[in-house]
Give the backbone structure.
Amino acid sequence: MSQSLTDIIHTFQSVDEEMRTELLLDYARKLPPIPQRLQQRRDAGLDRVPECMTPVFLWCEPDESDASRIRLYISVAEESPTVAGILSILVHALDGGTKDDVAGIPHDLVNRLGLQNVIRMNRLVGLSAILGRITRLADDPQPVQPVN
Amino acid sequence: MAGQYHNPDMLVTTDWVDEHRGDTATIRIVESDEDVLLYDTGHIPEAVKIDWVNDLQDATVRDYIDHERFARLCEKHGISNDTTVVFYGDNKNWWACYALWVFQLYGHANCKIMDGGRDKWKAEDRPMTTQRPSYPAVSYSAKPADMSIRALRNHVQEHISRGNPLLDVRSPGEYTGEMLHMPNYPQEGALRGGHIPGAVNVPWATAVNENGTFKSREELEVIYQQQQGLHPTDDVVAYCRIGERSSHTWFVLTHLLGFDLVRNYDGSWTEWGNLVGAPIEKGTPEPVTSA
């Protein structure tokens, strides 16, 4: 796992459930805005992760300044702070990271974060699909084409 | 009366809620959303959160909490048997209707929906806070479940054998079963696609306007009665995938259109589509011609 994700997990594990919920909400608020060129793709309905019932749009590109690193951008509908929170954690941990960082995401991330009561079973299909897509894209990241 | 909903008092406006929300001794506002943390990002100041998973569902067995636990839930939020409970929530009040349905399952008569829900309240820039109110506990006496509004799978089997109408409120693609063959489509664990034999398809959000408010009585009559051939004296079972969208439709049929006997089949497609031997139809049936 990337150092950032280890730190994040450690922080979550060291507080009680109420505080973990607060932390997750904080991450939801801190989900970085996506660049306008990607907003245009989202608004055109492109790049959505269909397995997630909540509208989630995802992009992974090579880092222009360092070929060994990737850029990760995610857009989540406002009405789903739980989803925005967990995906914001991924962005904070993986944006600017390496393929190895992506490969190191634990399969039981939700449990490790102590968020089983917040991110419930019905979300896991979508989350699993999102992680799968990030892994596939990070393996061979391509620059995203702008909408004409 | 032409134009009026069957139970017009079941719906209140955002104006009404704003005016009455301070009356916390007799009114309790309840927010119910799909996302358990949406309330925490901001809610109507006097509102309490009731979460469909954490508060209304049993954690071990797939079922609602029983009536005793329902009573404890009400007591915790300062809801007495006489309290008027006003529900609202995200996405056109889908989970708000689900919570209201559960309250009516256990006999709470004084229930209302805030028309337009959370999105309308926000769009009108009305007050919201992240602070949670707390209310003094009261006592509550709950009745055992009123099964006249709930269908279990054996009821559905009897229902089909009598040729009674069913209303499938999912998307057309889920109804016909074609969705199951689309790559990457969320399967939600159903091993088979299609619909319960005899069901007609009216996606649940057909009943609401863009701003989340319910359509007029006349418009709803066209949608459900003229176009689908349903009649207010019919014995109807509504379902979706897990019973939340169908409780929204149950609300429309029961309280807005005055249908006498509508039951929500909360097992819905996650049960029927996985049930060994359950009959399934695929595709679109012949269109109904209205009389």
